[in-house]
């Protein structure tokens, strides 16, 4: 099969982790006779530096012609003084909106080999396997009106959802839950305070009626922040609105042990968007310290979802487990006082995975 | 000294934990010759059941005449179908607004004796001592407009802050930080996306200029959800807007090991409001299973802040440490496989503390 992939490397460690993902994709393609065509495009700070905008028009237009978009990371401290609407992150939010994917899938898995990397005790994380479904195009991120009025010395943002927006993302989450062994869906909200959440809960309950085999529960976002740490194994699919998903899925990174390990896929729109969870980490950019596994696992999600290449996707995921079990560690997952670990840099980690897929 | 205290026991386990706090207060009063006068008043579901409203007018009026208000918890599943504005929680939000306290102080401490109760490894939590300063009267909780429009099938809430609101809570947080040994303040926002947060960060930086001895840092709420679990010891005072503080302070409960341990004090208004962090836990109400320590430590904060009774407050806090070190445990803090623990119920835990203060 052939896949045209927009490569949105972005800022900081983005380019180096994307490069390793490309190497792994090429290796997979060679073995299976698949061809991946890459279209490197600017986004984020790289877009601002070159064209004065975090989402150059060319980037958007060309991405829209691709089968999938693979993004590294955006953001750099040097843009901190800009308004949210002009920062690198605005490019990310804009391309999310334009591509139209509203369901951001974020797995959080406890790898046996990384049991010592989590601040959580092994007996708490062991076997945890969560799939977050984060709504990605609504809520406070995109709600209008939004303004910091410097005359009035007052700022506001709007959290807004339509029932249709909740319904479509809920349906994706239920579809996923229905196919998983536990068949459980936990919907997160703050229904005791927010009207948005009250509606969210109502719509989720409606959609739930179509999925009698899926067990549904509702949790408040504050309680959920605790439960995820005290009993992560009790969860299966977790459905959240945009900001709650941002916070809770990052928090759940501690189950795995490093944000650098975590992939994501955004589906439901014109072009699916694949991006690791981690940020651009400008402080370690270009030093070979970044963990490319998050992006490589993101590429695996792309092969599975956009390419239908389940075997190849699984092959990458298994290779990651093997490499971890063999003790190879980028700095973010290196534990002190644990024997049998081999410190590797970004490139070597990538090459080890290339050799295994 | 004499303190008139509005007793807002509320729902679920509220009445039983408040009773234990009263017993401890009385014991402290007897020793030191202080008198505490209690005014029991209805709030939350108890208010709805008796008067059809979660904040009966009598409750509000009488509380406003008191020196301090001590609240148990509100909320009951039987009201889940009501709109947010009619639920027990609306009574809590309304009394918070009417009393006017905008700075909610929430300590999160790692007790040595409870090291095994946290899902976090001992070496991560050891020595952690955080003070959250959560803005309590702004943001999504109170922002207008707010509505679930059932015709339009659309809901919205408003996150709104004025610079003055940020400034006054920031000042309280800096004042606290300036008096603590670490003198560090971490302000939490989502400035890469929200205008509210961009303004928040600007105002915090302005106030910071007045406190040259306090080290300031800004963290994004999603990253903070990780840092609190991976390196809680690196934080001292954490300043947040309302919802972020709700989520992160609950999350930080895992540092201590149980929400049942955590107190809070809300200051800056007409009457200070003291409430434990935990909810009403209707499932265990009336069974002697609730941990009264959160409420008893809340009473200690009240003695310190509203009564100026530092010695007495410290006495209660020390008694809690002693009781924990002697192995007494309510069900929420009982660990399996740990020797030397004595299971106790709500009342016995209260009595043990009464004997020690
Ligand atoms: C960079 C930022 C805008 C983004 C978000 O908040 O969605 C990031 O935190 C994420 O989770 O992908
Ligand atoms: C009960 C609820 C309204 C409340 C809040 O969200 O403020 C609670 O979670 C808290 O943290 O005190």
TrEMBL record, chains A, B:
Keywords of the record: Amino-acid biosynthesis, Branched-chain amino acid biosynthesis, Cytoplasm, Leucine biosynthesis, Magnesium, Manganese, Metal-binding, NAD, Oxidoreductase
PANTHER family (alphabetical): 3-ISOPROPYLMALATE DEHYDROGENASE
Name of the protein described by the UniProt record: 3-isopropylmalate dehydrogenase
Organism: Acidisarcina polymorpha
Reactions accelerated catalytically: (2R,3S)-3-isopropylmalate + NAD(+) = 4-methyl-2-oxopentanoate + CO2 + NADH
GO biological process, one term: L-leucine biosynthetic process
Gene: leuB
Taxonomic placement: Bacteria, Pseudomonadati, Acidobacteriota, Terriglobia, Terriglobales
Record site feature (Important for catalysis), residues: 141, 190
Entry-linked HAMAP family: LeuB_type1
UniProt xrefs under Pfam families: Iso_dh (PF00180)
